[in-house]
Design brief:
Helix 3 packs parallel to helix 5. Strand 10, helix 8 and strand 11 form a beta-alpha-beta unit. This protein is α/β, with parallel strands linked by helices.
Amino acid sequence: MRWERRRARLLKTFSGRLFLGLLAAGYGAVLLARDILYALRVFKPRRAPAKVVCIGNITTGGTGKTPATILAALTLRRRDQAVAILSRGYGRPEKSSDICVLHDDTKMDWKRCGDEPWMMHQRLKGQGVPILVSPDRAGAAAQAVTFFNSQVVILDDGFQHRRLARDLDVVLVDALDPFGGRRLLPLGNLREPLRALRRAGLIMLTHVDLAQESQLAALREEIHRVNPRAPLLEAVHRPDFLLDVKNESKHRFDHFKDRPAASLSGIASPAQFEASLQNNGVALAQRWRYPDHHRYTRRELSSIAHLLSGLPLVTTFKDLVRFPSDWRDLLPGTVYALGIKLDIVKGKNIWIDTLIELSGQK
């Protein structure tokens, strides 16, 4: 992204680091003032007419909030709870205050609702989980209760959204890069200081399968010092399904048995993405790798289409939303996106019991 490249250049010079440091100090002062005002109840969060579960983090990106939000919704739906998801809808091109609703068989271009709500919708189709997209999360919560009788609303990426009161805060921490360089934005990648973890009711370490045990032990100890009350869960991300993007149909990996395919990714760990495909039976005959956050051009996709020779193309959801708007014309063949699920490997019963207790079930 343009800002990331600019920040990387600033970090290489003393004056640039000083400038970013001053911005980070100002940002930290604003956060501290906000926390004090909420603690003194000068600012009062609005209470929704339903139980509210917040899924968030204290760093920018990388923790797996979207799969965690999906898992929370499915956990409650399997116990017959009426659930809705509230999303800010980052990525929506229009500055609209209207509430965009995705529900079961709704078909909508991702640009109208934002990329992450669209991704969640693809996974939750048929589960009876409406996704309401609006910057006014309190208003969206009220509509979820009015129109869908929602008993629980899940606030996606809302840990910093203090205006809506919540009954449970679940904070995700990436085991590989837990605290964003330990510096606040824009000098580092911390959205809030580590003390914010004290607000969490559950803390979940993600990507634990990729971290060394010594790293995990030190991280567990540090988190426990900051918040000794919150149970600490651990999770990994696993491939879940392949979405045929053009007709929005989901397929299992055996759909690719004995069939070659090509991969395309512009992410931080392309080898991990490719290994996930191969480990699930996708035979990669061709691979394209671009830098992380790469925005694809029409010329690049046209060139790839020319070299595919009829092979299906498999990419990530994050790459898909960086394709140019007319990508369907540029890639006339079949295009799949890899869906990811969150698998809790430590503390699964705590996760289930906490959500059941929150929803009022016994």
